[in-house]
Amino acid sequence: MKGGYAGRLLHVDLTEEKTEARELPTRLQEDYLGGSGLGTRLLYDMTGPETDPLGPENVLIFVTGPFTGTKVPTSGRHQILAKSPLTGIFGEGDAGGRWGAALKGAKWDGIVVTGAASRPLYLLVEGDAVRLVAADDLWGRDTFETESVLVKRHGTTCRVAAIGPAGERKTPLAAIVHDGADARVAGRCGLGAVMGSKKLKALAVIATEDVLPLDERGLRSHLRERLPLFVENAKGLHLLGTAGGVAGAEKLGDLPLKNWSRGGWDRAAAISGQEMAATILTGRFYCASCPIGCGRTVAIEEGPYRGVVGAGPEYETLGMLGASCLVSDLEAVTYAADICNRCGMDTIETGNAVAMAMEWAEKGILSPAELEGLDLRWGNAGAMVELVRRISRGETFLGRLLGQGVAAAARSLGRGLEAAIHCKGLSFPAHDPRCFNSLALGYATSNRGACHLQGGTYMFEKTALLPELGYDRPQDRHGVAGKGRLNFDAQNVMALFDSLKLCKFLLYAGATLTDIRRWLAFVTGREISLEELMRTGERLFNLKRLYNVRCGISRDDDVLPDRIVSLPRRDEGTGENLPPLTTMLEEYYACRGWDARGVPTRERLLSLGLADEAASLRP
Amino acid sequence: MTLTLSFRIHPLVTSRSGEIPRRLAIEGPTTAGKIIKDLGLDETEVLAVLKGNYLPMESVIDGEVEIGLYPVLAGG
Questions:
Q1: ipTM of the prediction
Q2: Which residues of A touch B76 (CB under 8 A)?
Q3: Cβ of A234 and B74 within 8 Å?
Q4: Rg of chain A on CA atoms, in Å
């Protein structure tokens, strides 16, 4: 397969148990690239405000980018999209690993799943050979077991995306887990619940051919020149994983503590990547085509948490299940993460939920009867693990309540709403907007709810650069002017990363937009100017916003929890800083060309080639 | 015993107290963590590498070696 695109999508109607190949028009490839952009186009056209996220009318879209499966560094990724059952708006997740590369190697750009099966099924794709297979024997199994069974059945080249019991029960914080115990997870937005609502247990994919760029020699030559720099720059990520940053994040005032209510914690090093390397780390692994290799493999052989063998906890997991709960027991956090991976749950949403419950317990918001014997004092590792277990199984009042995600759980309880730290229903990831002002704006305007990756601006306030856009030195993290522009630029760039399918750690590694334009030319033959590339990123971001506008989202929803904008951390790194969201939002809307309601203007949409969408806007 | 250590320093590793020396003569044995502190660096921001491998802060250094100093990249 050559040229970046297979030129076809696999449509799967689970209600009718039928599959069909459909052409992927060249115009969609050019205007929406692939991955997140192409998936958004399909989601926008196939669902809307009336769609029940857990009904058969929702679609579940797995889609690669033009780089997926090639040797372009970090391109072993794919995107999954659906209307989110967690937030009720646009939903997407990104995963690394090897599944996406296998799908492209099977000559498919993506899979569009519609309808709902009447019995558990899994999809088997081996090149042109596609079939739906009964999955009664897999239903109820965890994600690691499911992968193990399918690899044994279909061979070691079989790559598996699966849901666990959380997805089967349609828990809104359910995730889709890839590559078994390596656990490359599309965690956010409850996509696992959508898969469960369709009774689709897994997608097993086997590549049948190599994925080659149009200009193999050109790509090889360029990579020979650039890869040593990427490897050198990202060595910290390779040696310590994302977890290597835990202690530094605490010092900087970035690490969430006690459900986002304070700064300063002297136990951060105990749950760091450095501690992991000295204790439970057994190996490192790479996603497909990755020169960085940030994946951890760990094993716990003794003690109350023995038996864990698989992916080590990432920074986000340590931040939410560890620091935000003031739990400093690395093995306990690793064990809780293992429960999440096996059952298929988002560790960010789960960690926020546990921390929220601990705050409720401290403040007496939960009655002893509602606590059901749990001692949810801050830092109680055993209680944290037990609550994660209950959430994963949907057991007990609190387990079922928190399984809805923090926003719905607090609404459902009707008390303690101030402890639900989220935006648009998606809980905060483990980076504090009081540490990076730009993140406050990024969380408030991210299309899937509070997300650090849809803008990734904090990276440009640390070490990452975008010289082609004028960011040739790290930005002031506590500054205000220019944060609207930074979010505008960075969100457009990240939309490109999510569509072409690149890992954002490439920015730490030193990759530039010039590199990306050259890779696109090597892989697809398409020469694209910087201006057109950025216009494409802006188009993709705006289409997601339009999806949400149709669902009723407006400026009223571009807000943050009160404590984030009014309660200083008062620690060494962040001190009294509070992000001035309203001021930054004004600049941002002006950059975006959105009106005072947060709706893209017709003029801006027309300039982005979204004429049909402009015509459908209500005055 | 006096050790002469040499350093390979990534461009993103910078010291707030000035330029980082490329070579350092110290009384050994010592530890990786102490070396990093002696260089005016923060052990939460910098990691040490010996022969391509991560060097924990408590690792004992008792020989003439080249140590790589790299930035810890936070977050995901």
A1: 0.93
A2: 242, 294, 314-316, 505
A3: no
A4: 22
